[in-house]
Amino acid sequence: MEVVIEQGALKGLQKKTLLSNKPYVSFLGIPYAQPPVNDLRFKAPVKHPGWSGVLNAVSERDKCTQYVFMTNHIVGSEDCLYLNISVPQQNELNGKLAVMIFIHGGAFNYGSGSMNEYSPDYFIDENVIVVTINYRLNALGFLNLDIDECPGNVGLKDQLFAIKWVKANIAAFGGDVNNITIFGESAGSASVHYHTISPQSRGLFQKAIMQSGSAFNPWAFTENHKASAYKLAKNLGCLSNDPKEILKYLKNVSAIDLVKETEFKDETDFMDYKFVPSIESDVISNPFLPAHPKTLATSTFPVPVIIGVNNMEGIVALTEDRISLFSDDHHITDEISKLFRNRYSTETISKIKDFYFNKSNISSETMKLENICNLHSDVFFFNGVYETFDCFLKQNGSPVYEYEFKFDGELNGAKNMIFATRPILRHAIKGACHADDVNYFFRDLSGVDPKPNSPELEMCKMMCKMWTNFAKTSNPNSPDLSFKWINATACDLKYLSIDGDRTCMIQGMMNNKRFRFWKELSESIV
Questions:
Q1: Nearest to 369 by CA among 307, 306, 326, 413
Q2: Which molecular function terms from Gene Ontology are attached (predicted)?
Q3: Strand pairing class (129-133; 97-103)
Q4: 376 is catalytic
């Protein structure tokens, strides 16, 4: 299959889906912007000039430069602004197809849109076009010196550039330019939230899906961007306090050294990333984030939204080292204080400790671990997502569907990895960890495929059916689902509890007791 766009002609790779053998074509490694190298480092993306002849788009390009903590290596390249497009070869509708652009997670520091991790087989079976993208990460994507030459948020601007590229070109691939859904998980979900509140993204997509992340989560936004930038420069040998001198110096540091030094966070600072989205200075031209996310969120432009969390996101905190930090009363107090970067008073920390770790509420070691999990779930995921959900409801313009993913199966990859050497805990703590939903949407080519006739396979089909129904029609329901997902309103809170054949609607606010605790606590602090 050959496609011609403004940049030139492309030839893709023929594939077939895992479940139904449906033929599709993947166009891999399409450049959507110029390589952000040399003088373009730290700058907003620039249009790619195109190519002559036919681009053989049959292999992926490098992921963006990043640290891999499992192997302690730096991988990737600065030349990384590429996207992948997968198109059903037999369009059963013989019309324009709905387009779904996926933004990967990884705390704005890790990850890529690689088809090895995000193979779109299950989506293609539902007859949609899927796009995955790379965007700059860590300091290369989020260094902010408050000057036009280094404005900050260029990783988000890469995403914006990619979305604009898709809108301009997807018709040539059979896509509907007026039916684009952006969706993401974790930092990808927070990115989706940013696009719903940034004036720069308005009108570029019609629907949004947010899985386990919000711009309001503490790891997704920083107000200390300048201090982090100056510390990075100093650690790399630049002693100047002039932002233009710092920029000149950092442009001559190798990408490997730059990213290696980005990892200067304290090992005990859980999810404390230094280079993430930040407010852009008044002097910046066309800022993506001209004000605090909570200010921008008061004028979110209305699009239909799916938003939700996994019920045990905080399992990511249950590493053996981290559990040991919660071993006694004194350590618990210290660790809770660190979660809030020591900003809360002793009295407030004491209230939090009593709510989660009051001995009368803990009757077993498993329950204590669940409470460690719940604390981290609430602080790093739930509170921000709930606040975002509330903001969307107040816009009143479009339907908002809320969910909680609880399914605990063999494809729960993050949970399986965290408890790989502790199988007893794996089965004792029920539910879905942060990122456990991903393998039910995308096939991980280096992982395990769902077994025939298994609950995991049914979950893959169900999740992709709902997500693609929503992408096509703004409504996740269809006659072949055994339940009806009803959207929430400000006067009628409800959510879908997703748990295999136990999937059902639940009235009220998710985790209501914990939600009320944090609401009352935040009001008392204010």
A1: 326
A2: carboxylic ester hydrolase activity
A3: parallel
A4: no
- Is residue 104 within 8 Å of residue 212, measured between CB atoms? no
Residue 264: its pLDDT value, please? Answer: 58
Q: Which of 86, 112, 114, 186 is catalytic?
A: 186
Torsion of CA 432, 438, 440, 445, to 10 degrees: -130
The H or E element that residue 370 is part of is helix 365-377
Return the residue matching tokens 């999810």.
Answer: 271
From 159, 146, 147, select the one nearest 190 (Cα to Cα). Answer: 159
Q: Which amino acid is at 281?
A: S
Note whether 305 and 392 are within 8 A (CB): yes
Is pLDDT of 93 > 80?
no
Q: How far is CA 199 from the centre of its chain?
A: 20
The residues, ordered by sequence, that sit 6+ positions from 463 with a Cβ below 8 Å of its Cβ are 122, 437, 440, 441, 498
Q: Give dist(CA 501, CA 497) in Å, integer.
A: 11
Of 418, 422, 398, the residue nearest 488 (C-alpha): 398
| pLDDT band (50, 70, 90) for residue 362 | low
Catalytic residue flag (residue 240): no
pLDDT band at 92 (very low <50, low <70, confident <90, very high): low
What is the spatial distance between Cα 48 and Cα 76, in angstroms, rounded to a whole number? 20
Closest CA to 5 of 166, 201, 161: 166
For 405-429, letters b (16+ CB in 10 Å) and e give bbbbbebbbbbbebbeeeeebbeeb
In three-state secondary structure terms, 115 is coil
Residue 276 near residue 229, CB atoms below 8 Å: no
The question of whether 193 is a catalytic residue gets the answer no
| CATH of the domain spanning 80-220+276-525 | 3.40.50.1820
CB within 8 Å of 430: residues ≥ 6 apart: 312, 408
Spatial contact of 148 and 284, defined as CB atoms under 8 Å apart: yes
In this predicted model, what pLDDT tens digit does every residue of 96-130 receive, in sequence order? 999 999 999 999 999 999 999 999 999 999 999 99
Q: CA separation (Å) from 441 to 207, 305, 435, 437, 451?
A: 18, 18, 11, 7, 15
Q: Domain segments of the chain: what residues?
A: 80-220+276-525
**455, exposed or middle or buried, with CB in 10 Å at 0-12, 13-18, 19+?**
middle
Is the alpha carbon torsion for 279, 281, 287, 291 positive or negative? positive
User: Which residue type, as a one-letter code, is found at position 424?
Assistant: I
Per the residue annotation, which of 48, 193, 195, 434 is the catalytic one?
434
Nearest to 435 by CA among 11, 74, 110: 110
Residue 366: predicted pLDDT: 83
Tokens 């803990």 -> residue: 362
